[in-house]
Design goal:
binds zinc ion
């Protein structure tokens, strides 16, 4: 990779990130979430309770289609996860680290809340 100027390299990185982000969003928007024939979540299978990540795949597909309330029904932190994933395509600065740190903390709290709250 010689001959690439700093600006060209920077622009190439940005373009690759945008392309990857747009591809992911387009895939989530276009396709329906997969319907596995068996219970994917080991925690849910063992305990009968949803883990903090249960419903996240369906929530991401719903969010990409603009179905916010449906997404919140699948996983209340779906929009946060969406922002966290979007942050991966943004930049690798301190902002992304902060979003991910707060996001992981939020999922930990949400996980405890989901496990102990009565099933509705
Ligand atoms: Zn789960």
């Amino acid at each position: 990779m010689t001959g690439m100027t700093g600006a060209t390299e920077w622009l190439t990185k940005i373009m690759l990130r945008v392309a990857a982000g747009v591809s992911l969003l387009a895939s989530l928007w276009y396709f329906e979430p997969p319907k596995p024939a068996f219970q994917l979540c080991g925690f849910h299978w063992l305990t009968g309770r949803p883990c903090p990540l249960c419903g996240l795949t369906r929530a991401m597909f719903a969010l990409a289609k603009g179905h916010w309330s449906e997404a919140l029904g699948f996983n209340a932190l779906g929009p946060l996860a969406f922002a966290m994933v979007a942050g991966l395509f943004w930049n690798d600065g301190p902002m992304r680290r902060r979003v991910w740190t707060c996001g992981i903390a939020a999922f930990a709290i949400y996980g405890v809340w989901r496990i102990f709250l009565p099933v509705t």
